[in-house]
Amino acid sequence: MKKLLAYMRGYYKECIISPLFKMLEAVFELLVPLVIANIIDIGIANDDKAYIIKMCILLVIFATVGLSCTLVAQYFAAKAAVGFSCKVKHSLFSHIQSLSYSEIDELGTSTMITRMTSDMNQVQTGVNLTLRLFMRSPIVVFGAMIMAFYVDRTSSSFFERPATTFVLAIPLLAIVVFGIMCISIPLFKKVQARLDKVLNRTRENLTGVRVIRAFGKENDEISEFKAETYSLFSAQTFVGKISAIMNPATFAIINFAIVMLIWNGAIQVNSGSLSQGQVIALYNYMSQILIELIKLANLIINITKSVACGNRVQAIFEIQPSIIDGALKDTDNCSENAIEFRNVSMKYPKASENSLDDINFSVKRGETVGIVGATGSGKTTLVNLISRFYDVTDGEILVDGINVKEYCSESLLNKIGVVPQKAVLFRGTLRDNMKWGNENATDQEMIEAISVAQGKDILLSKKDGLDMFIDQGGKNLSGGQKQRLTIARALIKKPKILILDDSSSALDYATDASLRSAISKLDFNPTTIIVSQRASSVMHADKIIVLDDGKIVGIGYHKDLLKQCSVYSEIYASQFGKEELV
Predict the structure, then answer these.
(1) Number of Cβ atoms within 10 Å of the Cβ of 314
(2) What global pTM score does this model have?
(3) 290 with 254: CB under 8 angstroms?
(4) pLDDT tens digits for 406-417?
(5) Using DSSP, how many helices (H) and how many strands (E) does the chain show?
(6) What is the CATH classification number for the domain harbouring 110?
(7) Which residue among 110, 134, 208, 570 has its CA within the 20 to 30 Å range from the CA of 301?
(8) Taking residues 235-240, what's their average pLDDT?
(9) What's the rounded Cα separation, in Å, for the pair 35 and 56?
(10) Same-domain status, 305 and 395
(11) d(C-alpha 83, C-alpha 11), whole Å
(12) How far apart are CA 42 and CA 45, in angstroms?
């Protein structure tokens, strides 16, 4: 949490003004019982209405000044807290963007969302409360005790003074309040952990609702969700019962102290050592102490929660990206090969075996290469290494004759257009989504790219054309429409290397064939990598790479592989029938 405080730079003025004005408010609050005492002892005792009115006006002034101080303190505390939170969120989002797929996979989406939202909101609340109340409560507590002895300064014996009740009550109140707080804090941490589980379960159910319904698992998920929420309910109830002891215990102590205060005060009033107004002032100071101790206890619990959440946010910052950017920017290297794999092996973090093992191949400029293999054979892993979403464990990958580790990520990705397995479109217009590929693209260029991707019918079917609105995740489009538009988004970039990672799986065979034909006729002649489960999608490629269990088991033309590679022939036969092999 300490490292996050560096983001408070630029808010030093707010961090001084807010506590300062809260302290001023506390001072005015401590003066109120003295004014009340004077109203009783002077105004009411002497039936001096003019004096009573004057003191009442003074109370209104105190209230107005106190309210003004509170508003100023609230404003600057909120400004500092929101500004601090905003800076941390921006930095956290930027840091997450710098992490490689390995770190993102390990953290998990739900964890990062929780850190960015609920944890940061709790930290922001903690900063706000700290600036407003951390200085105020101690000043009111100790100030009230000092003022009590100032009011009761005429009594002769220390032990006979009503103010002595404060010396006995405050430590006892502190023991009860902070004792309950110390017991509650670890329990609140457990509640937060169980809340995380409920949030994770909620997110999984909402994002996977279609799968749940498809498998008829609604009742099972409802039961599991009830179990998670009941666990949270039990933890919150238990800690709530302990926290609930605070009010009756403190009120019991404070009422007993008030009884002792009034008892001793009555004796002192009877003897002439104290006035009735002074006893009322002592009573008011005792009430102020009770309120502030409860506020302080709740403040410390909130601060503890905020520190715990801040530590969880800080833990994200402490994760360093495993992929370090190179220094090479723009290059026009005239290497014969666009892509080259040299003895490449790759193992995911915490995995027991390599996902890819001893991969060697090269792709010439302008070639179309197909990659096929069974599910889990390493196809997606292989193409992710080209864009350096992951780093190789052994060996090296060259793009335009240069190791990908030497490129800065922006320069490398400017050369590559990637269409991932899952077609992702963002909320907004179609034009906005196309500009992800090229922010300076004209409408004509967008239409041409969509036409190459076989998506012109989408434009014709929508009256708004490029201004058609796309829901979050492209939910108002079919799977095939989303795939074609994501391909168009990559094409508008005019990349030197185009990677289609099983991105036409939702297209029919005719549309798939038309797409490949259109890509082959592009004027910028990209080097194309096609990953597919369909033999028909790769059979016309210049080169086909067959993967099996992370290893290359065949490289060559379609006809040669049918005869020489059993894995490829099995894939082909499963789709076209064994008679086609003859």
Answers:
(1) 18
(2) 0.75
(3) yes
(4) 998 888 988 999
(5) 21, 12
(6) 1.20.1560.10
(7) 110
(8) 86
(9) 9
(10) no
(11) 8
(12) 5
Q: Extract the tokens encoding 152.
A: 């009761």
The enclosing H or E element of 398 equals strand 394-399
Do 120 and 164 sit in the same domain of this protein?
Answer: yes
Rounded to 5 degrees, φ, ψ at 462 are: -110, 125
How high is the pLDDT of residue 300? 76
Is 459 a domain residue?
Answer: no
Residue 568: in which H helix or E strand, if any?
helix 566-576
Residue 117 amino acid letter: T
Q: Which pair of structure tokens corresponds to residue 553?
A: 């088991």
**Is 353 in the same domain as 406?**
yes
- H or E segment at 116? none
CA distances from residue 418 to 439, 466, 474, 486, 487 in whole angstroms, order as listed: 16, 22, 18, 9, 8
What are the two backbone dihedrals, phi and then psi, of residue 412, each rounded to the nearest 5 degrees?
-65, -45
Edge-to-edge order in the sheet of strand 337-346:
356-364, 337-346, 394-399, 402-403
Burial 163-177 (b: 16+ CB within 10 A, else e): bbbbeebbeebeebb
Amino acid at site 248: P
Alpha-carbon span 50 to 95, nearest angstrom: 67
Question: What is the structure's pLDDT at 82?
Answer: 94
Lowest mean pLDDT among 147-156, 303-312, 339-348, 426-435: 147-156
Q: For the chain, report the end-to-end CA distance as a whole number of angstroms.
A: 69
For 378, the domain range is 337-428+494-581
Reported as type and span, the H/E element at residue 402 is strand 402-403
